[in-house]
Amino acid sequence: MHGAILYLLLGQSVPLGFFPGGAEKELEAERLLLSIPSAEGFGAHLLYLTEEPHPAGSKRNMELADYVRERFLEYGLEDVHFHDTPALYSYGREASVDILEPVELSLKLKEDRNPEDKDSYRYSNSGVVPYHEYAASGEVEAQVVYANGGSPEDFAKLREMGVDLRGKIVLMRYSNPYSYRGYKVHLAETSGASAAIIYSDPADDGYARGETYPQGPWGPPSHIQWGSIVYDWLGYGTIPFTFHWKQNPDGSWVEGPERDRQLPRIPSIPMSHEDASEILSRLAGPAVPREWQGALPFTYHVGPGPVTVRLRVKNEDQIGLMRNVIGKIEGSEEPEKWIVVGNHRDAWSHGAVDPSSGTAALLETARALGAAVKQGFRPRRTIVFANWDAEEDLLGGSTSWAVELREKLRRDGVLYVNLDSAASGPNFSGSATPALADYLRDVSRYVPHPSAPTFYDAWRSKTPASEPEVGTIVGATDYTAFQENIGMSVIDLSSNGPYGVYHSQYDNYFWMSRIADPGFLQNAALSRFLAVLLYRSANVELLPMRYSAYARAILAHLDEVEKKAAPAREIHLTSARDAARRWEQKALALEARMWERELSREGAARFNALLMEVERALTEDRGLKSRPFFKHLIYAPQPTYRDEVLPRIWEAIDAGAWEEIEGYERELVTAFEKAGSLLDEAAAVLDTL
Amino acid sequence: MHGAILYLLLGQSVPLGFFPGGAEKELEAERLLLSIPSAEGFGAHLLYLTEEPHPAGSKRNMELADYVRERFLEYGLEDVHFHDTPALYSYGREASVDILEPVELSLKLKEDRNPEDKDSYRYSNSGVVPYHEYAASGEVEAQVVYANGGSPEDFAKLREMGVDLRGKIVLMRYSNPYSYRGYKVHLAETSGASAAIIYSDPADDGYARGETYPQGPWGPPSHIQWGSIVYDWLGYGTIPFTFHWKQNPDGSWVEGPERDRQLPRIPSIPMSHEDASEILSRLAGPAVPREWQGALPFTYHVGPGPVTVRLRVKNEDQIGLMRNVIGKIEGSEEPEKWIVVGNHRDAWSHGAVDPSSGTAALLETARALGAAVKQGFRPRRTIVFANWDAEEDLLGGSTSWAVELREKLRRDGVLYVNLDSAASGPNFSGSATPALADYLRDVSRYVPHPSAPTFYDAWRSKTPASEPEVGTIVGATDYTAFQENIGMSVIDLSSNGPYGVYHSQYDNYFWMSRIADPGFLQNAALSRFLAVLLYRSANVELLPMRYSAYARAILAHLDEVEKKAAPAREIHLTSARDAARRWEQKALALEARMWERELSREGAARFNALLMEVERALTEDRGLKSRPFFKHLIYAPQPTYRDEVLPRIWEAIDAGAWEEIEGYERELVTAFEKAGSLLDEAAAVLDTL
Questions:
Q1: Which residues pair with A559 in a beta bridge?
Q2: What is the spatial distance between Cα A147 and Cα A173, in angstroms, rounded to a whole number?
């Protein structure tokens, strides 16, 4: 009788990844792990981490690196060290926006103070101005055009309406529809605009969504979303991150003659809706298409003008350090095999959600795992803790580390677990490489949730499907290098709620402790989830990848790109589809029998190495034509950071390069056949026992 | 060879309804008809009709009846006469709304003046107050609760939230989601509320939609939507329309002891968003569910309170006359067969769109048809022109006329063509009994459109489907009695655009002539369409009903009600579906051969009578359990005026009366079999030739 079934008959469940024999000890360790991360512990970390603003390169962020390092040491982590790399930073020094026509009016460019909240006084320091990192410095006097969300479709619409953007200042919303802010500015720049403004419309994150700070979680009228606008897709993953700056023999840095093309050439500034409405309410020209209308109390118009604005930005570029803090729990049996977990530390302001909740959760998790080791529960594989730097600026810390360790990670990287914040609310959201979706769901059954028996229950209650929906790993966060460049399996965790203060000074301790997660129940629970996930992943006997699910996801993606092509041309990716189906069949056969009998330690190691290799088989070395850093065949973010699947074919469709598709399809067939033959080898390992 | 095909080979098309031989003369007449209705003629009618407000029962509306009668006579219509019936009207005499807490503030309850627009001074007469017709008079002082669109789902949500409405004033939006205003007030009343307010949110018809009056077509901050709130579904079609008022032998009317249950028992008032925001912005309690948020610049809250309001309404009930104006163009060959066309005359205010554009179009059409008759083109069947009264109050004029002539119409009523306004913009919208969908599309190919070669092209460009989408005949307008009680085939025409001034004083000549239809191009074109449609319908050799399309529509409706039932119980309407399919097959067979050979005059008359009978077969005499006036088996409006299909089964599902469904299905089977055997008889007519 199948051991797992026997175990179930006894009224217990066997966690995915274990034979019944190993499950008991695992669950004992996990019970211990669940008892350690606490709301008090989390809150103490959060309070310290959010005491002051701490952008990358700031003195405070270096102090916080010391704090993280000291905690890692205190909790018993091994090989604790800094990983330092130079990078170009850009800081806002001066900014002003004055309306010159049809009225004279200087905009505030400040977030309001709330006497109850000591962290809302940031702008009392007159040196603090809102800014878009890497925006060009300059002064522009021009009429304004409203361009909705600044997405490619929005700019296309403006062209269709005959609106000439040359020399204009383009005013855009942050989130309608979602598009990376840097890509908005890029589109404005390449349309000939002289400057950009991006504001937070109350329809997207303000009063139209619900109660606003300090009564509720949404953004108050003066809140401003800071952010980087680096044109990263033009040179993604370029190492070093110092761009056109060169180091002198004496160690000093000087700016090279030509500004790197990843850096905007026009000024840009973020803005509150309180300020933006002074401009927007005075625009004339045609009324906007209906979906461009936001929640400000007037009909929006496209312009240009009659509003004329003088916008002045002075950003200062300088080279600084990116300081990752690294620590490990060495594995007992396969120390060379790594489970990496990371969250960034740098924040635009106080960053209670983004990212300090993640750092605090990481520390609570480290505390739990360190304690477990002391009590004799050392995991089989090594867990590497990483506290990244400069995520906000350019995903710099994680990328530089991953690229530096590329060969090691391709050989031994089992899994990268990412956080980019822990909990801003009670709605758990888990994303994973498709092969790990079932595993992530399974882990979620073992962790209690504050508002449902388990994370699984809470998660399922938020999705219309009968099973919790596992998200896709595509976006702009620290997992990018791990999936896209290394080809590692990835899991990403977060717990979400209404969150309208993103990248503003109101994302702070007051907001988190009074509004979003009073008592830190959600964040403490997420720390527990993370502890169990890491320990279990470092301990599984056979890796829990189910590649049949990956193949099925790919079959759906093949449909997607065929549909994407359809308006222009009918394409039929039949041979890729057939290859994916053959791979799926092999995976299903393997998954049906891999738990039948326990393997020897050597057999399991060989089996696991083959499963790891399958994800690597879904990469190829050349990388995307437009972005060689992106070597994954199945997923990539678009420059807007929207999802892109089967990116080579996707981009060929966009470029109308129909003749390339056949070659890309062959590349997929080869990859799926490689993946299938790796599973054949794994099956052979089972047979030899 | 099929005559029609021969005709096509000659490069001409044969209008649906004619043999090639008859087509030529028809098209000659239609060319003449197309040349007559003019923008100037339309504009002159509209100017006169909109000179003053003219609600039903007002002196001005009686003067307009004279105007219509005189034009009918002038244009050569026959048997021109008034059709008078007494009805209960209710007029607003006094109204005030004062906020008592947390501030003291008296609301304006007036629409703003615009010096450019002489028709915007209505409220300069202090006797004019906005009102909901038939609302109870009374004074209420209570806290306010916001109930979104006041739909059944919204009240259910409030119950779920634990909000007690007893004694409260319920503030509701007009259009989110759409629900008949009278049903909103009814739900408030039956929830124990003491009064109702319904306001126009700018998200629905104001600045969030686009430019507002006087710059554009949407509603300005002070605009108020007047309207009737009669609980008509509680006694639909009750004749007389005097409710509990009784006539003395001397002819005077007195109110009976008990207020009719179709009349609300609580006060209610319509309101601008300018006024409503004074209340809404001060409500506390939980923030609203996201879809309840409108476009006013603050987070909406449910209440109750702390806003306390004193609302005072004094409406005066009195019996007045409903005066329909009727005129005819007598048919040359089948004078007993009637094509009826109607549009109402009464307006809440000046009513440029609703309804005067329709009356003006009807007059231009009458002028064209009268002129055609004088030039020798008298149609085969009789065209009856009707200018209804009291549509706004209780669909009174059309209903009383139809019910009075019920036997005549059931025997001889070929088609009812409805207008409820002509054009508020360029987007043509045609609705029809499913059997007439193809016919309506076909007619639209023959009429030029101002912004596309033909109405067909303009219509198709606005629908995602490859063919223009023909709407369903369900709603609250003058066609109700004709379809629901008589069982006549119906066509409804309108041409639409952004229209945010519905039922306000701004629906006036200024708005129409400057903003919505400058030059009256759209309205003149619609008059031409109507002229062609009426003449052709009165002249077709074989009636153009295609019952195969009706059967297919019913098959889709069977799916709909099965799906509606599904959450509670699985039902399978297999025998109804089979019967509908058999009917469809018979219809398809008939439609394939009916144009093969011309019929004798007598044969055609017999054939046509049978086709007319099919629509009648889709009614039964008992009527709906809840509303016996509704005798149609396929369509009915819900009390909210949303669509209801297969209404007997629909309402049994709602009531959980599962045991009734089998009987209703048998009733459908019988009807479809009757419909099929009528087609058999029609086929036999073809065979005897």
A1: none
A2: 8
Confidence of residue A235 (pLDDT cuts 50, 70, 90): confident
Q: Please list the residues that pair with B667 across neighbouring strands.
A: none
B621 and B520 inside one domain:
no
Q: What is the pTM of this model?
A: 0.88
Q: What are phi and psi of A304, to 5 degrees?
A: -65, 145
Whether A312 and A100 have beta carbons less than 8 Å apart is answered as: no
Please give the biggest Cα pair distance in chain B.
Answer: 83
Q: Are the C-beta atoms of residues B358 and B493 closer than 8 Å to each other?
A: no
B85, burial (CB in 10 Å: exposed 0-12, middle 13-18, buried 19+): buried
Residues B256 and B283 in one domain: yes
Mean pLDDT of chain A: 95
- Out of A207, A209, A299, the one facing B210 most closely (by C-beta) is A299
Task: Kindly compute the dihedral angle of the four CA atoms of residues A370, A373, A377, A381, in this order, to the nearest 10 degrees.
Answer: 80
Question: Rg of chain B's alpha carbons, rounded to an integer?
Answer: 26
Work out the number of other CB atoms within 10 angstroms of the CB of residue A122.
18
Do B101 and B62 have their domain in common? no
Q: Which residues of B touch A567 (CB under 8 A)?
A: none
Tokens standing for residue A285: 């020209």
Amino acid B689: pLDDT: 63
Q: Do B414 and B521 lie in a common domain?
A: yes
Q: Per the CB < 8 Å rule, is B209 touching A290?
A: yes
CA-based nearest residue to B112, from B124, B101, B102, B104: B124
Angle value at C-alpha B182, between B177 and B184, nearest 5 degrees = 45
**Is A391 an active-site residue?**
yes
What is the rounded end-to-end Cα distance, in angstroms, of chain A?
Answer: 17
Q: Is residue B18 part of a domain?
A: no
Amino acid at residue number B201: D
What Å distances lie between residue A516 and A362, A364, A602, CA to CA? 19, 19, 48
Nearest to B323 by CA among B400, B259, B381, B248: B400
Where do runs of H (alpha helix) occur along A133-180? 152-160
Q: Residue B617 is part of which domain span?
A: 547-687
Kindly state whether residues B570 and B665 are assigned to the same domain: yes
For chain B, residues with pLDDT lower than 70 are 1-12, 689
Euclidean distance between CA atoms A357 and A347, whole angstroms: 11
Q: Which two tokens stand for residue A243?
A: 């761009």
In terms of phi and psi (left: phi > 0; alpha: psi -120 to 50; beta: otherwise), the region of A376 is left
Over the Cα atoms of chain A, what is R_g?
26
Of the residues A391, A484, A541, A584, which is catalytic? A391
Q: How far is CA A496 from CA A94, A354, A516, A522, in A?
A: 34, 12, 9, 9
B218 contacts chain A (CB < 8 A)? yes
pLDDT at A72 over 50: yes
Cβ contact B455:B428 at 8 Å: yes
ipTM computed for the complex: 0.81
**What is the Cα–Cα distance from B412 to B609, expressed in whole angstroms?**
8
Does B273 reach chain A within 8 Å, measured CB to CB?
no
Q: Is A211 on the interface with B (CB under 8 A)?
A: yes
Going through A376-456 in order, the beta strands assigned E by DSSP cover: 381-388, 413-423, 427-432, 448-449, 452-454
Cross-chain residue pair B290–A207, CB shorter than 8 Å:
no
For residues A527 and A558, is the Cβ–Cβ distance under 8 A?
no
CB A606 within 8 A of CB A640: no
Q: How many domains does chain B have?
A: 3
**C-alpha distance across the termini of chain B, in Å:** 17
Give the whole-angstrom CA distance, residue A17 versus residue A15: 6
Dihedral angle over CA of B280, B284, B288, B294, nearest 10: 20
Which parts of A10-142 fold into alpha helices (H)? Answer: 20-34, 39-49, 59-74
Tokens for A131?
Answer: 């800014």
Structure tokens at A395: 């995903």
Indicate whether B306 and B334 sit together in one domain.
no
